[in-house]
């Protein structure tokens, strides 16, 4: 194809050359070596300590001129005097002072007896008395330079350059430079004087710098003026231990500005060098953050203001092998992520390294994983609050960018050598929709993102400048479709292309004006008179004058890019010029490598084309599924040798087809590595391609079994992180639940279609002749009895089925027993237990319908499952899970967690609620809970619970008492947790993420959790923090007042007997104190509170408690009250159910219906109770309710309280006008609730 020429189009900046791995930033230009001129003995040669930077002598070639300046050496009393034009340098060492006078300023330094010494790095400045000579030693040589108005004396190495008027070589050099010096001496003298004074001021401010100013001044003048032309602004070099912009004082800013002026004068007038960078670009580059290693920092940083750092940055000192050499050290968190199973196959896999180690980068839920194949180790890039939606890597694979989609979305840039996030953009999408596509320039200087909103926004970020806002933005119209692929032009940082399924867009960034010009031609059937198909990916052609867009029809749209000059009135645009029917299979991946254009298609073929789109070679014999990603090694292919085994291409010549090694990711979640030299395909990752809903750990071996909705069951050795074996069931069978039996020889598997398999645990072969097909919906739970005689299942149709072992022909055979639709809502838990008297199994189920049902297994027979007991667990909240409470007490409990963040302990025999406790409160109720296994019998005294809620996994120390410091949690799957499993020794916890296709392995560190508990305080200290104001707050003082007032009530308000003040109140007073402080328990909750207090010591002492102390009352109150107080949302929800929509659009209840509901529904009230209650609430009863002792209550018939109620009652009227409460719509508001109750 013909390449378009555009001679008038302005050339962009040259890309920064590819840096070696020791270079610190991809955009830093390599320092060029300049050879020193050798034209006589008057040349100045400076050799930097570690650099190979040789500067052309500009000021070093300044010779003494008889008319302008004379060098006079006077050895009288050891003093050195230099008088030149407007400035004289005087050193008087006899009196112990050194004087420098330049222009209008003077430098005075007095040190000791008049000797000035400078020791800087490896160079020392020594002024010796004797002959009055000034020496400066730096590195291996010594440099002496004295600036007056152009007078210079230099001594290098072991030799010195001494200026004498009679030498012939000096006169020649003097004549050659006289014309150049004449115009610039005065300006240089003035600038150097200002620079010297600024350096003195800065030195006085620094109390830690022991170096002298004389050497620093001369070194800064000589060296930094040259560096300022070649490197980026040194004022922005950050400390190696920081990742933020360096802040400079006013003196440092003055020095920097003077250095720039010196550089401009020296380069422009002495060395005749031109600075071509625009002023705006220079200002922009001053903001850049640089990460430099210590050695290069010492070379580049001006010595006068080198920051003092205690340690080097990991980013600045790291190499490519640093990441997997890091020592994790001591575990400081209770839960530490150690391994991630799975791969998000919708995102690409990147080939990070292919040398001594084979390293991959891929996304797994909200974590990016750097996986070392040879070492079988992972490093996790964690920090995203949501599932990662897109990612990219720089050309050299040093820098990684990741973005997520959801609330509080982040855009993060990582260093792949260390795994450290070097920059995070928090407000990349203020609306919270997240990022849909991301791209990075070849030199990693810029990032481009496309948001995931309805109106997509394209942003370009100068992330290397630590910018928090984009350089430019562009809103895309809806008709462009959702752009989901984005890429930069490899040779032009200002040019991009993106595509959706229906539209390709070309962008050109005018950085000077911070605008983004785009062109998005619409393709129709008439454009080429052929069907084009849906776009998959777009790239820039190898000639960079065209854009290629691949389609799912196997076609390639070729776009010509028109770039008019800036002076032209037309804007850049693309125009479709050709439709190439490249292949029959739909193209899913389009990329370039070296001189090839590469495609991957839906049939698993990988094809290579040259720049004319002629096929060169292809790989089609591997029988892969649809190609999702191709990533080539950054290491160039090795040239063919006699031992190499490169394939031949398909051209007539049959040349050797030399290509780099590359990674292949397919739609069935398999990652391959292709070694081109041997055409050898190796599987690296084999992961489930659909949701992971079921996991289970072996009861005594380090094995974890993972089940996916695609029908795959995989078994891993989680200790060695090694995949062992798997089984894929026929299409249509998806795994929903997995459980090992207690012996570990069988594995029960429940499927989405309702099928139940019993498999051999070590081979995954069928353990029964035919699977059970008694359910028509998904099997959600599987459980085995303690002796493996029974197996029970629960399905999504609220049905419990039981299977048992029978002996047939001397063989154990599993048979179906019976099933029963025992619940009205979903079954939350299915649990086997043991009868204490007979050791026979017992089976219980817990439903969302608040029913706890126990079945009579011994009384059941074929097709009949008998129910033994039904018990309601709660009133308003619904249960979420159930387990057997560990035997920490003499009484055996069932632990049931509910949606109100409460944990209830029920007596396993009587089903009486014995305790209600505050459970883990981490954003959502607990959904599953298990007891952490112990390794030894010594650990039985200290037990722990493991729980998961909607998106977190956590630990809880037993016994539960409401102490919030006994719990901890961490986000494990932002989009929801599907399941949990525990290792047999309690060392690891595994969580499954469902739709995020991941399983996370967490290492448990109980000592860290215990440390957190000890820091939280003992006794009541943790509980004081749960009330407003704490121990000394207003709420607790009021509680004390109510507590002691309750004692007066129990003794009688009007009694004349002596008052008995104690530390207790009667049990009957507890409800009144609860209501007084703003908690209104139902009658059932009051019964639970009474039972909890009365029988708290019954098992140990046999006594019934009838009183309670203030500390115990505080614990009971905190454990029973709503965790977030009463909120308008919860009250409004009830009105939404019971009310109707009034004329104002609000839910309301008529007065008659409101009173009828109170009298007939729920815990209904009597008419007398209702009358007394409303009389008190409406202020018609002056003393309070009839339960108040000695209160002069009016009879209900005498009070017309019905007339005080409005005819229409809304939630707001009920709360504010009737109850008199001031309830916030937010979370917990203890003070406001108490105040509202007190006003009543």
Automatic annotation (TrEMBL):
Residues 42-136, 271-302 have a biased composition (Basic and acidic residues). SUPFAM superfamilies: EF-hand (SSF47473), Quinoprotein alcohol dehydrogenase-like (SSF50998), WD40 repeat-like (SSF50978). Keywords: Cell projection, Cilium, Cytoplasm, Cytoskeleton, Flagellum, Repeat, WD repeat. Gene3D superfamilies: EF-hand, YVTN repeat-like/Quinoprotein amine dehydrogenase. The keyword Zinc-finger does not apply. Involved in spermatozoa motility. May also regulate cilium motility through its role in the assembly of the axonemal radial spokes. This is Cilia- and flagella-associated protein 251. It comes from Myotis myotis.
């Amino acid at each position: 194809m013909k390449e378009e020429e555009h001679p008038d189009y302005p050339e962009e900046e040259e890309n920064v050359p590819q840096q070696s791995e020791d270079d610190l930033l991809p955009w830093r230009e390599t320092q060029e070596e300049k050879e020193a001129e050798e034209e006589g003995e008057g040349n100045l040669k400076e050799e930097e300590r570690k650099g190979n930077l040789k500067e052309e002598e500009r000021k070093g070639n300044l010779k003494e001129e008889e008319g302008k300046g004379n060098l006079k050496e006077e050895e009288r009393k050891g003093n050195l005097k230099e008088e030149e034009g407007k400035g004289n340098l005087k050193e008087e060492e006899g009196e112990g002072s050194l004087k420098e006078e330049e222009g209008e300023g003077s430098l005075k330094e007095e040190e000791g007896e008049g000797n000035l010494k400078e020791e800087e790095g490896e160079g020392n400045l020594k002024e010796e008395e004797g002959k009055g000579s000034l020496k400066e030693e730096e590195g291996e040589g010594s440099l002496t330079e004295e600036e007056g108005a152009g007078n210079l004396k230099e001594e290098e190495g072991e030799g010195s350059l001494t200026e004498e008027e009679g030498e012939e070589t000096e006169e020649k050099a003097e004549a050659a430079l006289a014309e150049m010096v004449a115009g610039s001496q005065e300006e240089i003298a003035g600038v150097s004087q200002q620079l010297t004074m600024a350096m003195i001021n800065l030195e006085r401010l620094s109390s830690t710098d022991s170096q002298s100013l004389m050497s620093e001044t001369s070194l800064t003048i000589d060296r930094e003026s040259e560096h300022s032309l070649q490197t980026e602004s040194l004022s922005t070099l950050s400390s190696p231990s920081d990742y933020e912009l360096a802040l400079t004082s006013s003196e440092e800013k003055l020095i920097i500005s003077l250095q720039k002026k010196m550089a401009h004068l020296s380069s422009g007038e002495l060395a005749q060098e031109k600075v071509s960078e625009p002023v705006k670009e220079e200002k922009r580059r001053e903001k850049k953050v640089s990460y430099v290693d210590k050695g290069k920092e010492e070379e580049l940083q001006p010595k006068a203001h080198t920051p003092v750092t205690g340690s080097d940055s990991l980013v600045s000192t790291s190499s490519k092998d640093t990441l997997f050499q890091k020592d994790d050290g001591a575990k400081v968190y209770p839960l530490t992520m150690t391994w991630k199973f799975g791969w998000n196959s919708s995102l690409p896999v990147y080939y990070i390294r292919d040398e001594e180690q084979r390293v991959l980068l891929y996304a797994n839920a909200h974590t990016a994983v750097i996986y070392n194949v040879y070492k079988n180790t992972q490093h996790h890039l964690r920090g995203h609050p949501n599932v990662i939606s897109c990612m990219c890597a720089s050309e050299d694979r040093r820098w990684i960018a990741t973005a997520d989609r959801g609330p509080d979305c982040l855009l993060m840039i990582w260093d792949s050598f260390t795994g450290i996030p070097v920059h995070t953009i928090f407000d990349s999408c203020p609306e919270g929709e997240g990022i849909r596509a991301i791209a990075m320039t070849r030199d990693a200087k810029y990032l481009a993102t496309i948001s995931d909103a309805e109106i997509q926004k394209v942003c370009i970020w100068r992330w290397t400048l630590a910018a928090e806002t984009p350089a430019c933005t562009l809103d895309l119209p809806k008709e462009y479709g959702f752009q989901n692929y984005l890429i930069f032009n490899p040779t032009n940082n200002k040019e991009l292309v993106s595509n959706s399924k229906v539209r390709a867009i070309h962008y050109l960034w005018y950085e000077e004006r911070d605008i983004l010009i785009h062109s998005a031609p619409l393709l129709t059937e008439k454009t080429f008179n052929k069907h084009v198909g849906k776009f998959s990916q777009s790239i820039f052609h190898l000639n960079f004058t065209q854009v290629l867009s691949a389609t799912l029809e196997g076609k390639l749209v070729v776009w010509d890019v028109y770039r008019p000059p800036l002076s032209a009135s037309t804007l850049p645009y693309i125009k479709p010029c050709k439709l190439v029917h490249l292949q029959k299979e739909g193209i899913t991946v389009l990329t370039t490598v070296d001189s090839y254009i590469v495609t991957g298609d839906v049939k698993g073929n990988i094809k290579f084309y040259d720049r004319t789109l002629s096929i060169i070679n292809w790989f089609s014999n591997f029988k892969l599924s649809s190609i999702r990603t191709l990533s080539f090694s950054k290491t160039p292919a090795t040239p063919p040798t006699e031992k190499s085994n490169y394939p031949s291409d398909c051209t007539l010549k049959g040349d050797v087809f030399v290509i780099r090694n590359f990674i292949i990711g397919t739609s069935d979640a398999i990652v391959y590595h292709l070694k081109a030299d041997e055409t050898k395909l190796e599987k690296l990752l084999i992961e489930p391609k659909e949701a992971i809903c079921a996991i289970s750990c072996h009861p005594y071996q380090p094995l974890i079994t993972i089940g996916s909705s695609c029908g795959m069951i995989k078994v891993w050795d989680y200790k060695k992180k090694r995949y062992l074996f798997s089984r894929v069931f026929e299409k249509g069978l998806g795994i929903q639940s997995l459980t090992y039996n207690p012996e570990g020889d069988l594995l029960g598997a429940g499927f989405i279609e309702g099928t139940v398999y019993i498999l051999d645990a070590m081979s995954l072969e069928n353990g029964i002749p035919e699977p059970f097909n008694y359910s028509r919906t998904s099997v959600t739970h599987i459980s085995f009895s303690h002796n493996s005689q029974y197996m029970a299942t629960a399905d999504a149709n609220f049905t419990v089925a039981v299977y048992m072992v029978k002996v047939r022909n001397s063989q154990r055979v599993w048979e179906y027993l019976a099933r029963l639709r025992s619940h009205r809502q979903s079954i939350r838990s299915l649990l086997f237990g043991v009868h204490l008297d007979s050791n026979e199994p017992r089976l219980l189920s817990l439903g969302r319908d608040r029913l706890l049902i126990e079945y009579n297994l011994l009384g059941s027979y074929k097709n009949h499952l008998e129910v033994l007991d039904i018990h309601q667990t709660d009133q308003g909240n619904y249960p979420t899970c159930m387990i057997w409470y560990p035997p920490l007490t003499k009484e055996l409990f069932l632990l049931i967690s509910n949606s109100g963040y409460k944990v209830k302990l029920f007596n396993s025999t009587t089903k009486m609620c014995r305790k209600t406790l505050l459970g883990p409160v981490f954003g959502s109720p607990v959904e599953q809970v298990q007891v952490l296994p112990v390794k030894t019998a010594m650990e039985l005294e200290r037990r722990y619970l493991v729980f998961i809620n909607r998106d977190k996994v956590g630990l809880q120390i037993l016994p539960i008492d409401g102490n919030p410091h006994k719990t901890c949690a961490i986000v494990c799957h932002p989009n929801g947790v599907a399941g949990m499993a525990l290792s047999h020794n309690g060392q690891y916890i595994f969580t499954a993420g469902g739709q995020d296709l991941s399983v996370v392995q967490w290492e448990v560190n109980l000592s860290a959790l215990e440390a957190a508990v000890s820091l939280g305080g003992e006794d009541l200290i943790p509980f004081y923090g749960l009330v407003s104001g704490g121990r000394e707050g207003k709420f607790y003082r009021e509680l004390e007042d109510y507590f002691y007032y309750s004692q007066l009530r129990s003794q009688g308000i009007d009694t004349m007997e002596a008052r008995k003040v104690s530390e207790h109140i009667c049990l009957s007073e507890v409800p009144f104190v609860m209501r007084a402080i703003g908690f209104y328990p139902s009658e059932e909750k009051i019964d639970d509170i009474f039972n909890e207090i009365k029988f708290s010591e019954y098992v140990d002492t046999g006594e019934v408690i009838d009183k309670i102390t203030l500390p115990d009352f505080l614990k009971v109150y905190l454990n029973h009250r709503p965790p977030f107080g009463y909120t308008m949302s919860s009250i409004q929800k009830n009105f939404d159910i019971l009310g109707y929509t009034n004329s104002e659009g609000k839910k309301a209840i008529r007065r008659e219906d409101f009173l009828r509901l109170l009298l007939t529904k729920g815990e209904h009230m009597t008419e007398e109770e209702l009358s007394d209650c409303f009389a008190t609430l409406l202020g018609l009863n002056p003393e309070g309710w009839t339960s108040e002792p000695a209160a002069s209550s009016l009879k209900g018939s005498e009070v017309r309280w019905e007339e005080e109620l409005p005819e229409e009652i809304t939630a707001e009227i009920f709360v504010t006008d009737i109850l008199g409460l001031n309830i916030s719509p937010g979370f917990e508001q203890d003070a406001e609730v108490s105040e509202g109750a007190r006003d009543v």
